[in-house]
Amino acid sequence: MPRPVDAVIEAAAAFLGERITVNAALRDHHSHGQDTQPPVLPDAVAFIETSEEAARLLALCHQHNVPVVPFGAGTSLEGHVTPVRGGISLDLSRMNRILEVSAPDMDCRIEAGVTREQLNAHLRDQGLFFPVDPGTAACTIGGMCATRASGTNAVRYGTIRENVTGLTVALPDGRLIRTGGRTRKSATGYDLTHLFIGSEGTLGVITEIQMRLHGIPEAASAAACQFATLKDAVETVIAILQCGIPVARMELLDEVQMGACIAYSKLTGLDPVPSLFFEFHGTPASVAEQAKQAEEIAEGFGARGFQWATDEADRKKLWQARHDAYWAALALKPGHKGIATDAIVPISKLDEAILGCKEDIAASGLSAPIVGHVGDGNFHTVILVPPEPDGLARAWDLDRKIVARALALGGSCSGEHGVGIGKREFLEQEHGAETLAVMRSLKTAIDPRGIMNPGKMFLN
Ligand SMILES: Cc1cc2nc3c(=O)[nH]c(=O)nc-3n(C[C@H](O)[C@H](O)[C@H](O)COP(=O)(O)OP(=O)(O)OC[C@H]3O[C@@H](n4cnc5c(N)ncnc54)[C@H](O)[C@@H]3O)c2cc1C
User: What DSSP letter does each residue of 364-400 carry, written as one string?
Assistant: First the structure.
């Protein structure tokens, strides 16, 4: 008796040819993301090249009740792309065309497999840029939409949510729809665009994205400054935000993460102590003024070592070190895996959340550097999982404590990484049973057969 998935593979080969494959290495590559969830092989991998192909493949999967897991670059951190019930891993990396850029309107339309670096290289000559910059350059903008991603610039330019105005989506039954549009605002109908932003491949496949762009700032200045205590660094963040200084980036690194970054990225002139990295954007005069205000506030909390870098190469080096923080943390203990926590709290609770997290780490006996987009109230720890039988259980225990504190402080278990498998257990506590039931109803209405990325977001 042929399996339903074999019927899909055979029928899809008629229009995908060799782009639907059961090649062992490719199935293995699509069996996991950048996480500690156990890998599961998909039955096949399909490389689609158009929205219509995505829709046709979904119609087949819907007809045969076969699971589909959209796959961008597989950089997500919560088991999002693991095909826990097998089926088809639908790879969007070949949908990587930049379809349209309008400099006068400062917007663009791209396919979902375009990466942020690819888009920014394309835009540079037009004086425009796309600001959302997760710590890995490989991720696709479709994946960023699906996980509601953000980065170091979110405090100034918003997350992916604020920058997307419309989508093309292939629905589980094979319909292809367009949501939203190009205008900065619209007051018509339900906001389906933002229903799909953060839906983690559980509602459909995003194939095209309409987005806002931003002008490359006339002037930019970056600096690192260092503190005697983590408390001083966190209180500086809160004071700068409460004063309304329009900082473009403000990242916190505790002494462990700072030590890791110095070693990994060969940073000079900095010590392994709690540190803040800043960046300001604007006109030369406004940047100078913002930098001066921030420096005065930080100095009030004992900051030292401000060295402002206006040169692009120097700024790049500092931010590359920040983007490499995850790999720097892993390099601290070779042979350990990493679990990246992602708590976020209201700004006024940031000190309680981070200092409490530091106590939890000490009590756990594990190594867990802290780094984060503190300008949004979001911070990560990279919990280094010891290669021992109880290592993973101890790491998850620490993650749960950090999440519990964030929720008690009115925060969220994930500021940007999403739910996937790893954060499902917190969703009811965070949103409440009735709200979760409404989310489930939406899922059932759009994906009645439950073929889209099953086993994610909801516990069962
Ligand atoms: C070192 C490192 C640093 C990171 N730093 C950050 C950070 O600063 N900020 C941040 O937000 N994240 C960060 N991440 C996490 C990750 O990069 C993001 O979650 C990213 O958005 C995932 O993109 P991707 O293309 O790899 O998606 P994938 O991992 O391939 O997929 C992620 C989820 O989206 C779904 N999906 C993918 N593409 C589509 C599509 N076109 N349509 C529908 N569903 C789709 C998948 O099914 C899956 O559920 C980091 C990861 C690493 C490894």
Answer: HT----EEE-GGGTB-EEEEEE-SSTTHHHHHHHHHH
Please state the pTM of the whole predicted model. 0.96
Same fold, 98-215 and 333-420: no
- For the domain made up of 219-327, give the CATH fold: Alpha-Beta Plaits (3.30.70)
Q: What is the pLDDT of residue 460?
A: 77
Amino acid 268 reads T
Q: Whose CA is nearest to atom 18 of ligand 1?
A: 76
Is the pLDDT reported for residue 352 higher than 90? yes
pLDDT value at 310 more than 90: no
- Written as six digits, the tokens of 367 are 């190594």
The confidence score (pLDDT) of residue 126 equals 95
Fold of 98-215: 3.30.465
Domain spanning 333-420 has what CATH number? 3.30.70.2740
- In this structure, the residues whose C-beta lies within 6 A of any atom of ligand 1 are 33-34, 69-77, 80-81, 92, 112, 134-136, 139-140, 142-144, 146-147, 149-151, 200-201, 205-206, 326, 416-417, 453
**63-115 confidence digits (pLDDT tens):** 999 999 999 999 999 999 999 999 999 999 999 999 999 999 999 999 999 99
In sequence order, which ranges of 18-151 are alpha helices (DSSP H)? 24-29, 51-64, 116-123, 141-147
Question: Which residue lies with its CA nearest to atom 23 of ligand 1?
Answer: 143
Give me the residues paired with residue 329 across strands.
none
d(CA 262, ligand 1 centre) in Å: 27
**Structural domain boundaries in the chain:** 4-91, 98-215, 219-327, 333-420
